[in-house]
């Protein structure tokens, strides 16, 4: 089954077009699909369109078999598409546990069970469960953002630059966590760490200037001239 099916997508901010004729596919059998590309390529814009925050001017977006291009974002979450945004969007004055509760609005009946699963994955969050989110370190906040995403029991979990602003060792931990999550949930991974994102990916897309320049398996992209010349060093 195709979990996400995007075809001929154009997206504008006012008069400014930033995505051009984007087509991509995320299948149920994919563990990780990575979308890589430089600053300003349109990666966040694409994820925001998939999660219903932005409305496309042309083209179609199907999530879990249904057209969502005119569906509000909380309904898209309910259908199983959840995004961990770049800004993490935590509620800083609420506790760790309360933030997890916010993530479970579509699956309230499973709150305790899912919270315990998140605490098992990130024991440090259990230690801090009563602390306000804003008192957490950057790495812990990223764990909380991921945990909150999992509380909705997604079929597809999309990450927007999850390693952003983290020290290399923490970034590596985040990639390992994403790999673990991808055993159960299909992951869309937007990253500027191109090598790491493509190593994890079954399939990948290179987005440049609002257009898909290259696509293929993670291994094919790592060997492609476009990626080697533009994005990999050494
Ligand atoms: N709210 C907005 N209004 C107008 N233009 C915007 C807005 N948000 C983004 N843009 C523009 O759209 C283009 C794509 O931006 P986007 O944030 O999607 O890129 P990105 O690939 O996520 O970049 P980054 O790697 O820096 O996160 C850029 O030229 C950006 O300046
Ligand atoms: Mg971005």
TrEMBL record:
It comes from the Archaea. The keyword ATP-binding applies. One of its GO terms (biological process) is L-amino acid transport. PROSITE patterns: ABC_TRANSPORTER_1 (PS00211), ABC_TRANSPORTER_2 (PS50893). GO terms for molecular function: ATP binding; ATP hydrolysis activity; branched-chain amino acid transmembrane transporter activity. InterPro entries: AAA+_ATPase, ABC_transporter-like_ATP-bd, ABC_transporter-like_CS, BCAA_Transport_ATP-bd_LivF, P-loop_NTPase. It holds the Pfam family ABC_tran. SUPFAM superfamilies: P-loop containing nucleoside triphosphate hydrolases. Residues 1-234 form the ABC transporter domain. SMART domains: AAA (SM00382). Keywords: Amino-acid transport, ATP-binding, Nucleotide-binding, Transport. Belongs to the ABC transporter superfamily. This is Branched-chain amino acid transport system ATP-binding protein. It comes from Halobellus clavatus.
């Amino acid at each position: 089954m195709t979990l996400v099916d995007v075809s001929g997508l154009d997206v504008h901010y006012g008069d400014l077009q930033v995505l051009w004729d984007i087509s991509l596919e995320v299948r149920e059998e994919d563990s990780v699909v990575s979308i890589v590309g430089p600053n300003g390529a349109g990666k966040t814009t694409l994820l925001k369109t998939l999660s219903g925050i932005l409305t496309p001017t042309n083209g179609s977006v199907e999530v879990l078999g249904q057209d969502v291009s005119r569906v509000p974002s909380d309904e898209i979450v309910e259908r199983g598409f959840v995004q961990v945004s770049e800004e993490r969007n935590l509620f800083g004055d609420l506790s760790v546990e309360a933030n997890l509760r916010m993530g479970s609005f579509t699956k309230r009946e499973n709150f305790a069970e899912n919270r315990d699963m998140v605490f098992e994955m990130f024991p440090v969050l259990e230690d801090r469960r009563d602390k306000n989110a804003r008192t957490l370190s950057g790495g812990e906040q990223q764990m909380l953002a991921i945990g909150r995403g999992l509380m909705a029991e997604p079929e597809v979990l999309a990450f927007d630059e999850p390693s952003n602003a983290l020290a290399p060792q923490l970034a590596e931990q985040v990639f390992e966590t994403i790999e673990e999550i991808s055993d159960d949930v299909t992951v869309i991974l937007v990253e500027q760490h191109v090598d790491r994102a493509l190593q994890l990916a079954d399939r990948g897309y290179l987005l440049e200037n609002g257009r898909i320049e290259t696509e293929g398996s993670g291994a094919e992209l790592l060997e492609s001239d476009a990626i080697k010349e533009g994005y990999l060093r050494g």
